[in-house]
Write a structure and sequence with these properties.
3-stranded mixed beta sheet
Length: 415
């Protein structure tokens, strides 16, 4: 039976605040702060527990091997000798944001009846550009069943940032849908990370019906305002598109194109007069998980930061009171991730599949999350300061922490 499974990235033991993500305001504003990898990972685990308690299927992905010494070797240097910015890029724990792991097209949308996943190349940001080999290996293990087709990344220079720039509308998760690829154009102060050619290539690889596939341009104002991915200003679930007024370059044309392709769509738009773009970005209002609840209706799993911004919370409460499609507001604490620029939606990759076809080692239950939390509590560093990235001892501790988690979950082949 096909159902939507959210796979969260477990926040790795190298989680730190190096401010590497150009265009990500939260990441830049916390550059140089002392991070708390243990607290960060436990917050992520609690989010997974929260969603399991709602009755939502839940999976997870392993952190990648960090610091990435083989990557530094390709640059002719080592962890000990690397310049500071290269060392920080080798330490990056950004694979925690599983929304950037891949773009996913469920079987009902594909001509061959397979669920297709294309690993993101993430070439725009050096600290993320070396994630894809580890991500590809992990996805090919988790989705080895013939029900899936896992594709290698689109080649450079066509930047692809995965599901963070992809949405899907459908009557039910297990029915055929309309897939929306959102791309950026041009440079400016901040770069557009998703290329149109990359999105089109993914659609071809996934064997999507051109009549049910849309390519919509993200607004330059949103990108330059700090919406580095579309999922910072828009999210879709089943028949609902929840979006900020400034999300798309040509708002009216985009809405018309979406309605023509999927007439049943309900567009819930937050006007800029009610919630400004800076308020939307600071709160990560749209970087939330819009989910179908087992009891009916939709819930919005959003960061606790949204409660602290009056305009955001007032709009949300008015929407719920007005009997809109979002019936429950479900705040979660992911402050360590938020400070590095990733909200609840960044931490998960949505895969519509039969859970029986997924490697069970990647499927969560409360007991398994207890085991993961135990490893994190025992092995994850409590804090990492910027100067600690030069420590060979810390590098060894971080690698051993990840190894302990892989051994606990029987995933030693990812070592």
């Amino acid at each position: 039976m096909l159902t939507e499974i959210n796979f969260d990235g477990i926040i790795g033991p190298s989680h730190n605040y190096a401010g590497l993500s150009r265009g990500n305001i939260a990441s830049a504003s916390h550059a140089g702060d002392v991070s708390q990898p243990r607290a960060a990972a436990l917050q992520g685990i609690e989010k997974m527990r929260h969603n399991l308690a709602l009755g939502l299927p839940q999976g997870f992905f392993m952190p990648l091997d960090r610091p990435d010494a083989p990557w530094l070797k390709t640059l002719g240097t080592t962890l000990a000798d690397a310049e500071g910015h290269l060392r920080a890029q080798a330490w990056s724990a950004s694979s925690m944001w599983a929304a950037n792991a891949a773009t996913v097209s469920p079987a009902p949308d594909s001509a061959d009846g397979k669920c297709h996943l294309t690993v993101a190349n993430l070439v725009t940001m050096p600290h993320r550009s070396h994630e894809w080999p580890g991500t590809l290996a992990q996805l090919r293990l988790a989705f080895a069943d013939p029900a899936f087709a896992v594709h290698a990344p689109i080649p450079a220079p066509f930047g692809d940032e995965g599901a963070a720039n992809h949405m899907r509308l459908c009557s039910r998760h297990d029915s055929a849908g309309v897939e929306i690829f959102v791309y950026g154009v041009g440079g400016g102060r901040f770069p557009a990370r998703q290329h149109l050619d990359a999105s089109k290539a993914i659609a071809r690889h996934h064997r999507l019906d051109p009549k049910r596939t849309l390519f919509i341009r993200q607004s330059d104002s949103a990108i330059q305002g700090g919406a580095f991915h579309n999922d910072v200003v828009a999210v879709a679930n089943e028949h609902v598109l929840f979006t900020h007024e400034t999300a798309f370059e040509d708002r009216e044309a985009a809405h018309a194109e979406i309605r023509a392709a999927f007439p049943a769509v309900e567009i819930v738009e937050v006007p800029a007069s009610a919630v400004s773009l800076p308020e939307a970005i600071k709160s990560y209002l749209f970087n939330a998980q819009l989910v179908s609840l087992p009891e009916g209706g939709m819930g919005l799993v959003l960061p606790t930061e949204a409660e602290a911004i009056p305009a955001v919370w007032q709009w949300l409460e008015a929407h719920v009171a007005g009997n809109g499609p979002i019936r429950r507001l479900l705040p979660v604490n992911v402050r360590q991730s938020m400070a590095n620029g990733g909200g609840p939606a960044c931490l998960r990759l949505r895969v519509v599949a039969d859970p029986a076809t997924v490697d069970p080692r990647f499927i969560a239950d409360q007991a398994k999350l207890d085991r993961i939390a135990g490893v994190v509590a025992a092995h994850w560093p409590e804090a990492i300061a910027p100067g600690d990235l030069a420590s060979a001892a810390l590098a060894s501790d971080v690698r051993n922490a990840r190894k302990a988690l892989l051994e606990t979950l029987g995933l030693g082949e990812l070592g």
